[in-house]
């Protein structure tokens, strides 16, 4: 760690990992509810568990992005953070608001929560992933603005690098597109149209910039490759990601009442969305192959390479599987979507956050890298989580193909619930893969507590 | 201004051909364009005409790829990828055209 | 995997030898070639989408194609080809150590590219006045999407040419420093290359 204010990243990373644990617990609950429908009913119905699972994911990734930014920007800008106090204050506000929201989901019926939090003043709730009460949404905007102010001021007074500019573009985009969560037109087509401006333009647009910037930063640090080379790749990757991702929004506009041309625009551009991810994979491996130093933090290198590969598979390949309109006509909203969602979020965003945590945490704790034994433990965590996620994805894909066949393609289509019974074997296997994932997560957590001699600090 | 009249220049092998070659290619490209345009103006249609159009397009594309883009002297993978793209696109357009005739 | 990535990413690592004995070399930056391949894939996908959509609607496509301005299309082809030629001359000038002369050639290339933009804008204005829109027919949708996607590439190409002109004017390029000008030129030729298929496909083939 070069600047003392970078240490504000630490609580963000810890909170991120803590919420990650919560997300996985609710994932397991839902995995069981898929096959044992009344498990924990009526205390935690499936829809609530799902809301908590997805909301926790988003919130912990945001904690991870913010932590990454607080760690990365001072180092790139070569100056202390504009206001570490503001950063810490925002941390507590965000954590308390996030926790209160999750408790609200769990303790109060959703409709009561809506009444209590002013949804009748401005109705924004009740839409998938944007379930947060109005107060929470406003809180998110305030935290985001304070955060962006802090980061932008830091950058203005320091060195401006391509990496930090790309990161900041991504973060500003994230904040701006979130504003569409307040727009809730009565027309259902319009509602869905703009709903995707938050959901899609986050994960297939601006988040990709954040991801590419974080990955590039870690790669510079662990490989020692010239910044100029890495920046060139960054330009190519973000241009491709933005062009394919922005117009690729069309792949959500196939069947919601929008004009026909979206089927062409959506199909062609989203079919190209794997390209930036492929570029990222090639980029990561190429940089590591051309490395000029052997960084003692082997685990961070593994996470970075894992991000490249898994993001391409999950976001690229599994996205492509069902993105063409004629295919999506059959697969829309099936378990194939769930398969893609799991591996894409894990491969692209979970892994990139864990990459920066793996790189930054030892530095924040005053050493260049963890002891060999701690790193081996961490790498076991990586492999257990990654391989079990591959299996979760494969089982869900199998379930999805069977589902589409029985429910939609067959000459004698079966009703939804009857099909769910037919695919339950895959749900059971997915649940067991989920248990292995949880074991991997525990292994990963344990790696933080493995004692041993630490590597001395080196300065990159 | 830096001085580029360095001794390495004598050793530097040209990758971009001569101005004369570039000019001759330009003349060929323009002439080919006029052929394509006149086919369109005369309302030409049918498999033979479309075959001619895309043979011309392929020839023009190959000149751009090999000479103007200077892939002639690049590692083989690159001209092959670019020419392979041209071949694939032209061939599939041909198949689509034939499919439209049959329909 | 490693070796595969290695060959894909650094072809210059083990230079093959051309027939005349000089080492084979990819002009410009590797990243731009990766980008160009992605662009070719994108345009390829659109060309094929057009061709196969046409196969299901031959009469509609043939009828509405007649309304396109083939003269403007041909003129634009000539402008792009000439612009490409001028940029080749610029690269050759830089290779000969005459960076400032290269700037003049690039300015010529830019002028031709700007000419393309003007012609295209007149074409669009006429089409919009005639009621052509993304939703007015499948043919119009493809015509607008394909040409507009290409149009945006011309605009980006012009920005790149402007940057090259600025660099060349300052004497930045020469036999020892060809990377920047070769990179920009490669992108510009790609914009030309895809138009060479777009023009016969959309304006002429029937």
Written description of the protein model:
The complex is a heterotrimer of chains A (460), B (103) and C (206). Chain A has 460 residues and is mostly helical. Chain A has a domain at 1-160. Helix content of chain A is 75%, strand content 0%. Chain A has 16 helices and no strands. The longest helix of chain A is centred in the last third of the chain and has 38 residues, at 372-409. Chain A is globular and about 65 Å long. Chain A starts with 8 loop residues before the first helix and ends in a 13-residue tail after the last helix. Chain B has one domain (19-102). Chain B is flat, with a radius of gyration of 19 Å. Chain C is mostly helical. Chain C has one domain (28-204): Four Helix Bundle (Hemerythrin (Met), subunit A), CATH 1.20.120.80. Chain C has helices at 2-9, 30-55, 58-65, 70-95, 99-129, 138-169, 179-204. Chain C is elongated and about 55 Å long. At the B-C interface, helix 2, helix 3 and helix 4 of B face helix 2, helix 4 and helix 7 of C.
Task: Summarize model confidence as the mean pLDDT of chain C.
Answer: 90
Question: At the fourth CATH level, what is the homologous superfamily of chain C?
Answer: Cytochrome c oxidase, subunit III, four-helix bundle
Distance from first to last alpha carbon of chain C? 46 Å
Biggest interface: B-C, 66 and 67 residues
Report the β-strand fraction of chain C as a percent range: under 5%
Unreliable segments of chain C (pLDDT under 50, ≥5 consecutive)?
1-19
Tally of separate helices of chain A? 16
- Helix and strand composition category of chain C: mainly alpha
This entry's quaternary arrangement is heterotrimer
Key phrases:
heterotrimer, B: 103 residues, mainly alpha, 73% helix, C: 206 residues, Four Helix Bundle (Hemerythrin (Met), subunit A), 7 helices, 0% strand, elongated, disordered N terminus, Cytochrome C oxidase subunit IV family protein (chain B), transmembrane (chain B)
List the helices and strands and how they pair.
The complex is a heterotrimer of chains A (460), B (103) and C (206).
Chain A: H1 9-35, H2 46-77, H3 84-107, H4 110-116, H5 134-157, H6 162-178, H7 188-223, H8 227-248, H9 261-271, H10 274-289, H11 298-321, H12 325-331, H13 335-364, H14 372-409, H15 416-422, H16 424-447
Chain B: H1 8-11, H2 19-41, H3 47-68, H4 77-102
Chain C: H1 2-9, H2 30-55, H3 58-65, H4 70-95, H5 99-129, H6 138-169, H7 179-204
Helix pairs in contact in C: 2-6, 2-7, 4-5, 4-7, 5-6, 6-7
């Amino acid at each position: 760690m070069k600047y003392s204010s970078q240490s504000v990243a630490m609580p963000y990373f810890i909170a991120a990992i803590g919420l990650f644990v919560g997300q996985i617990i609710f994932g397991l609950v839902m995995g069981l509810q898929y096959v044992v429908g009344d498990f924990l009913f009526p205390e935690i119905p499936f829809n609530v568990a799902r809301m908590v699972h997805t909301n926790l994911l988003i919130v912990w990734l945001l904690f991870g992005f913010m932590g990454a930014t607080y760690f990365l920007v001072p180092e790139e800008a070569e100056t202390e953070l504009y206001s570490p106090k503001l950063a810490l204050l925002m941390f507590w506000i965000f954590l308390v608001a996030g926790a209160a929201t999750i408790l609200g989901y769990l303790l109060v019926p959703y409709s009561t929560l809506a009444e209590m939090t002013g949804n009748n003043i401005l109705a924004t709730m009740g839409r998938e992933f944007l379930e947060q009460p109005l107060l929470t949404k406003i809180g998110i905007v305030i935290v985001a603005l304070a955060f962006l102010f802090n980061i932008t001021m830091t950058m203005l007074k320091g060195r401006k690098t391509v990496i930090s500019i790309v990161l900041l573009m991504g973060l500003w985009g994230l904040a701006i597109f979130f504003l569409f969560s307040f727009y809730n037109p009565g027309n259902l087509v319009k509602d869905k149209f703009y709903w995707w401006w938050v959901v899609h333009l986050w994960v297939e647009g601006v988040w990709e910039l954040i991801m590419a910037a974080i990955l590039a930063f870690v790669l510079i640090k662990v490989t020692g490759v010239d910044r100029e080379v890495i920046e060139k790749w960054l330009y190519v990757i973000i241009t491709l990601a933005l062009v394919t991702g922005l117009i690729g929004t069309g792949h959500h506009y196939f069947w919601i009442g929008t004009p026909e041309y979206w089927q062409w625009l959506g199909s062609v551009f989203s079919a190209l969305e794997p390209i930036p991810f492929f570029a990222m994979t090639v980029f990561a491996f190429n940089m590591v192959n051309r490395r000029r130093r052997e960084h003692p933090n082997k685990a961070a290198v593994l996470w970075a390479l894992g991000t490249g590969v898994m993001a391409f598979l999950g976001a690229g390949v599994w996205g492509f599987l069902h993105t063409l309109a004629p295919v999506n006509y059959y697969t829309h909203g099936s378990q194939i979507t769930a398969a893609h969602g799991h591996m894409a979020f894990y491969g692209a965003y979970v892994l990139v956050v864990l990459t920066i945590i793996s790189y930054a945490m030892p530095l924040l704790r005053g050493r260049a890298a963890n002891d060999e034994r701690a790193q081996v433990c961490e790498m076991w965590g990586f492999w257990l989580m990654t391989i079990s996620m591959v299996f979760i994805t494969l089982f869900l894909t199998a379930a999805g193909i069977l589902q589409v066949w029985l429910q939609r393609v067959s000459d004698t289509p079966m009703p939804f619930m009857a099909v769910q019974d037919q695919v339950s074997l895959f749900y059971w296997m997915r649940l067991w893969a989920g248990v292995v994932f949880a074991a991997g997560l525990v292994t990963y957590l344990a790696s933080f507590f493995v004692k041993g001699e630490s590597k001395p600090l080196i300065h990159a | 201004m830096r001085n580029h009249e360095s001794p390495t220049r004598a050793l530097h092998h040209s990758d971009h051909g001569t101005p004369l070659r570039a000019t001759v290619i330009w003349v060929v490209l323009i002439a080919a364009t006029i052929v394509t345009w006149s086919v369109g103006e005369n309302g030409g249609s049918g498999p033979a005409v479309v075959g001619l159009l895309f043979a011309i397009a392929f020839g023009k594309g190959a000149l751009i790829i090999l000479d103007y883009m200077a892939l002639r002297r690049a590692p083989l993978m690159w001209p092959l990828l670019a020419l392979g793209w041209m071949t694939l696109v032209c061939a599939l357009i041909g198949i689509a055209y034939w499919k439209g005739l049959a329909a | 995997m490693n070796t595969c990535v290695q060959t894909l990413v650094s072809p210059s690592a083990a230079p093959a030898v051309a027939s005349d004995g000089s080492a084979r070399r990819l002009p410009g930056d590797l990243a731009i070639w990766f980008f160009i391949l992605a662009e070719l894939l994108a345009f390829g996908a659109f060309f094929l989408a057009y061709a196969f959509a046409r196969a299901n609607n031959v009469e509609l496509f043939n009828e509405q194609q007649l309304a396109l301005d083939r003269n403007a299309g041909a003129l634009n082809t000539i402008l792009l080809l000439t612009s490409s030629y001028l940029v080749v001359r610029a690269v050759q000038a830089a290779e000969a150590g005459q960076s400032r002369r290269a700037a003049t050639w690039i300015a010529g290339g830019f002028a031709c590219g700007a000419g393309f933009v003007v012609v295209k804008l007149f074409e669009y204005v006429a089409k919009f006045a005639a009621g052509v829109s993304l939703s007015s027919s499948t043919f119009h949708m493809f015509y607008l999407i394909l040409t507009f996607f290409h149009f945006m590439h011309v605009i980006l190409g012009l920005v790149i040419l402007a940057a090259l002109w600025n660099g060349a004017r300052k004497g930045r390029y020469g036999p020892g420093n060809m990377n920047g000008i070769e990179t920009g030129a490669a992108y510009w030729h790609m914009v030309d290359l895809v138009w060479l298929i777009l023009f016969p496909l959309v304006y002429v083939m029937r």
